[in-house]
Amino acid sequence: MKYILSEKTSGCIFCEKIASEEDRENYVLYRGERACIMLNLYPYNNGHLMVIPYQHESSLEGLDEPVLSELMNLVNKCLRALRRTMKPHGFNIGLNIGKVAGAGVREHVHIHVVPRWEGDTSFMPVLARTKVIPELLEETYDKLSSALREG
């Protein structure tokens, strides 16, 4: 509901957050040379991260080798930090490129890293079309930001 009622920007939401220096307010957890790690504002699960290149491209084909390499290195950094802090049983990692693929932000490619736990789905998504996330984004930010800095 927060997303539906919130004021929408005319530019790219990722480019705006990347350009800002207010990392905590924008949930930017880690900045690399060519890409960053950010919390998803509307997570599928606690700890849902996104790895986002600084370069504004709608698909992977527009990114050069150093950017692609850093994206995958940051995905690994996410896995290590999530394993240390949240102890998930598995992960979903993926990209949605294009509207028909389910991309919410179609103009700026990004990789989702979603921690998963056995039994992490309940009747809520099936019957009420609602996902229960038992941790505030601020708490997740604090937990993961130090783990990402550590390696």
Descriptive report:
There is one protein chain. The protein has six helices and five strands. The model has no long low-confidence stretch (mean pLDDT 88). The protein has helices at 2-5, 13-19, 23-26, 65-86, 123-128, 137-150; strands spanning 28-31, 35-39, 49-53, 90-94, 111-116. It has a five-stranded antiparallel sheet with strand order 1-2-3-5-4, with helices on both faces. The chain is of the alpha+beta class. It has a single domain (2-150), classed as HIT family, subunit A (2-Layer Sandwich). Helix content is 38%, strand content 17%. A hairpin with a 3-residue loop joins strand 1 (28-31) and strand 2 (35-39).
Q: What characteristic shape results from the CA principal axes?
A: globular
Rg of Cα set: 15 Å
Give average pLDDT, whole number: 88
The poorly predicted ranges are: none
| Helix content bin | 25-40%
Number of domains: 1
Broad structural category: alpha+beta
CATH topology: HIT family, subunit A
Instruction: Please write the CATH class name.
Output: Alpha Beta
Total helical elements: 6
- Provide the spatial order of strands within the biggest beta sheet: 1-2-3-5-4
| Total beta strand runs | 5
**Span between termini:** 35 Å
Oligomeric state of this protein: single chain
Described by strand count, sense and barrel closure, the largest sheet is: 5 strands, antiparallel
- CATH architecture term: 2-Layer Sandwich
Order of helices and strands: HHHEEEHEEHH
